[in-house]
Predict the 3D structure of the following.
Amino acid sequence: MKKLSYCAACIVATLLAAPSFAQQGAVVAGKAPGMAGMAHTVNVQAKITKIDAKTREITLKGPEGREVTVEAGPEVKNFSKLKAGDTVDVQYLESLVLELKKGGGRPVERTEDHAVTSAKAGETPGAAGGRRITVVGDVVAVDNATGKVTVKGPKRTVVLDVTDPEQLRMIAKGDQVQATYTEAAAVSVVPSK
């Protein structure tokens, strides 16, 4: 999964840095008692203009003519099926959910899960994968006057600004906060006609 994450993230980051590439996205935020979350989605498309089979470099061109070159690592299956004129479609999602765990008692820890799938031999090139990181930390201080909550995790301590007074009233020293960060990417190629 790490290889896919790096590959997809590099493509997404490169394309997002270039405003001339076609891209769409949305940000969604929500909350419930003892919970808050946010998700961000991006869809990016570009045309393949050049492929260097020896270096596995692919040159992508946006609708306004700007070009960038990215390297397709060995995790990109069916590389030989890529052709100039194909469209690369990258869909990317990342989200963060914070949950209050009243009374604590859970282990203070960080866990990480990965999943990946890629095209089978002979299929159109493509891959999808994701990872989820979950961190549980102890609430060690609550400052109602400033709205600051101090949470000590397995590796570091952070101070959170809680601007919603109703949410702040629910939090007490000794509770825990669970943060779940998720990212997923799907890369597909639409062959040229």
Notes: Residues 1-20 have pLDDT under 50 and may be disordered.
